[in-house]
Amino acid sequence: MELINLLFQALLGSVIALIGGVVFLFNQELSKTLEKYSIPFAAGVLVTVSLLNLIPEAVHEIGESTYWIVLASFLGIYIFEHLFFGIHHHGVDDGHNHKNVKESSVGLVIFGDTIHNFIDGVAIGASFLISPNLGLVTAFSTFLHEIPHEIGDFGILLSAGWKKKKILIVNIISSLMTVVGAFTVYFFSNSDGLNGTLMAISAGIFLYLGASDFLPKIASDEKNRFKSIFPLILGSAIIIASILLLPHEN
Known about the structure:
By secondary structure, the chain is mostly helical. The protein has 10 helices and no strands. The chain has helices spanning 2-12, 15-25, 28-62, 65-83, 103-130, 132-159, 164-175, 177-188, 192-220, 229-245.
C-alpha cells in the first residue's frame, strides 16, 4: 500500500500534470488563469515547506551541515538552469521568442526538463520519507507548477516544428523520471545521513524555485500583483496547517 501511495504521488507530480498541461494548452483562458494563481500558490508552498519542514528535519538528521548543502543546492540549481537555457518555461508565451528554435537548443531543453523531473521525484520521495502527508502536499505543489511548465515546453517544441504526437511521447518519457527519482530515494535512502542530505538538497531547490523563480513573476505582473497575494498566503497556510495538524510518521 505504501508503494502504491508513493507511485500515485509521483504520477501526480509528473504524468498527471502533463495531461493537465495538455488540456490547459488548448484552452487559452484556463491557461492564463492557471498562470496567474497557481504560481504564487506553489511559491507559498515551496518556500514554507523548505523553511519549516525540510530544513528542520535535515538538521535533525545531519546537523548544521544542512545549511551548507542547502546553499550548494540553491546555487547549483541556479547555475544549471542558466547554463541550459532555463529549466522552467511558465505559460504559453513567457516573453521569450520561440520562433526558429534550433534543434540543439531543443535537445538541451528536453535534457534539462528530464533532470528537473528527476529532481522533483527526489523531493517527493524525501518528503514522503518524512511523512506520506507531506509527500502528498509536495506532490500537489509539483503538480501545480508542472502544468504551466509543460505548457511552455509544448510551445517551444511546437515552434521547433515538432508534431504534437512526438511532443507528447517525449514529454511522457521525460515526466516518468519523477517516478524514477521518487523510488530511487525510497529504495536506496536507507540511512539517516542520506535522508538528511536529500532533504537539504530538496530544500535548496524548493527555495530557489519559490523565491527566485516564482515570486519575481508575481512582482513583475502589475495587473495581478494584489490578486496573487491571496494564493501565495493560502499555499503557505496549508503547509503550516499540515505541520500543526498532520502527524509525521517517521
